[in-house]
Structures are given as structure tokens and as C-alpha cells.
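Researcher: Next entry in the queue.
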Amino acid sequence: MKIRSTLSILFWLSAISSIFAQPAGYYDNAAGLSGSELKTALHRIIRNHHVISYTGLWTAFYTTDDKSSGKVWDVYSDIPDGTPPYEFDFGTNQCSTTPGFEGSCYNREHTFPQSYFGSSSSDTVYSDLFHLYPTDSYVNTRRSNYPFGEVTNPTWTSQNGSKLGPCAIEGYTGTAFEPLDSFKGDIARNYFYLATRYEHEMEGWTLLNNYGDIIMDSTSFPCYEEWFLNMLVEWHNADPVSQKEIDRNNAVYSLQGNRNPFIDHPEYVEIVWAGALPVVLPEPTNYPASFSAHNIHLIWVDASGAILPEGYLIRSGTAGFASIPNPVDGTEYPDSSTDKNVAYGVQNAWITNLNANTTYYFKLFSFNGSGAARVYKTDGSVPQLMQATTP
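Model: Structure for this entry, 391 residues:
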């Protein structure tokens, strides 16, 4: 995935908030804050909501997830601005078991899988409507507890185009589930809500499930791993708040008594998480004008034996090995274009500032002592090497 800049400012007009039917003064205690302080202030505003029973979700869905036609609004089967392959009727197509095909019935989907938080049916998050949808039971099962992601080579595709397969986002290459683009922003804002409503609980959820560990970072802020947080911000930016979300936010508020701040104020995403995301700089315009190697890296293994050397003298030339003279005992050769001294134990040397497209010849002599007392080993087979630079 090509990651776009997550720090681009969202120019959401404050007048937009007035159409979201939020209570007057609901977010007053969050005014002027940013980063983790803003998220904690929002947490205090939306916590302690009225808990609906898990069984009560069936009835709640009648008002939170109903289309204008009265049918079930299922994000795993719906095709906005198109014709869905099938639709469900409330109650009639409700089911608690999983059929073996799509379009049979709908059940209750934790978009943030239960295995990620490991709670019992008595816990608040278990039935929190802000991450629970009515969805096709079969697609729900295929999604399983895999994290959301982006999939370019799906192993399975639902009838509305949702995809399952290897994640194509750098940072995670395992199996992921990708919903339609039209619902990615909805899901991203659900996850921002969860990170805010359950910011203290989320710290302890990481070790409960391997897939949960893949997306969460064991902190109350930023809560999510960098790759996943980047993706959520991109989904949020690319799929702005829809009328469906506004209506659902209001419906959930009437039942639970709390709201999703990131639907009421989409700009909060940027204000909260901007500092937690890396600055993504523009891609460079061009490659370098040339690409060549005019340096040579020599590597060796230190000499062994009863008498170890103190160092080595590397002598070089371009006319062949025979043109390189042996060093003379009692003489030190300072580093130059043809000589380089290296201490024992270093075992490598860079020969720099060489000519292009030229073959160089090297000999490696061991030595001990200094000044007039210096002695070189020159008998036997002197190590030698030939190496060429590029054009």
C-alpha cells in the first residue's frame, strides 16, 4: 500500500457539527486539548454509558441499522449506490447458527472481535453498539477474528466484494479482511471510539489473542500499532462521515446515552493521533545521476602462528602483481595512494578514491616492529587480490 501523508490537515468546517444532533455542551470539557489529553477527556465524556444486553442488540438493530426500505443494513452484503446481491428482513432472517452459504441470515458481528478483548457477556464492551453490526452470518464466519487490512490477492471474495487474503500493507503480511471502501471510514471510526472509550482496558488486551496483538501496542496511547493506525487514518480520510453514520450515532445515543466523538467531530482524529504518527515526507523526484563503485573493500582473516604480526601493509598498483615491490625491512611506508597500514585485529580495509573502470592489484604483507626495527614477511606466498572498479 502506498501510504499517503497522515498529517494532512482535514479542513472540516465547524458548522458541520451542528447537523450531527449532538447535545449542547457535550464536548465542552475537551475544548482546546490535543493528543492523549484530548483522548482522555473524550474518554471521560463517553464512559459510563447505559449497557444494553447482548440479547437486546436484536431489537436495537431495528433502529441503529435499518435502511430507508426497512431492510437490514449489512455492511458485509450492501453495495452503496448499487444493487446488493440480497437483503435481510429484521427478525425473519435473524439467526444464531452459521449456515454454509451467503444470504441465508444475519447475526451479530463484533467488528472488534470478542477474542481481542476476552470479555464475558457481562462486560460493557461485549455489547457496545458502536462496534457491533448485524451482518451476514456466513461472511461473519469467514472474516473470523482476522484483523482488518487491505488485500490485493484475495483467497475468497464475498458477493458484495469484501475480501479475505494476505494483507498487502507493510507491517503485516498475514491474513486480513478488507471491507468495501464505502464502509472503511465507518469501521475506522469504530476503532477510534474503542481506543477512547476503553483506553485503560485496551492496555491489557494485547496478550489475549495473537491477532489482537498484531494491531494493538499495549499502551493507552496511541493504542494501535503504527501500520494499523496509519491504515485507520487513511480509511477515515478517504471515506468521510456519511448520513448513515450520523443517523446511527444518534440512534445509539438514544439507547446507550453516549456518542462516537469521531463521527461528531472527524477532526478529532487528526488532533488526537497526529503526533503519534510518523511524518511521511514527499517521495524524491529522481534517482542519482550515476551509480558506480570507485572504492574497494578488502577483507581477510588475521594471521595465526607462534609469532603474530602487529599489523599489515597493503601495497597496490595497476600494472599487475609483479609490479608491486616487496617492502624493505627497517622502512615504514606511510599511507598513500599505493600503501595502507592496518593494525592486527581489524581484518578489513577500504581503498578509496580509485579511478573508474580500472583493475587494481593488491598484496598483503605482515609486519612487526617500527622504524629501523620493522620487519616484513615477504617469503613464501604473499596474499594477493585483483579487483576492478565500475565505469
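Model: The first strand starts at residue 106 and ends at 110.
Researcher: Noted, moving on.
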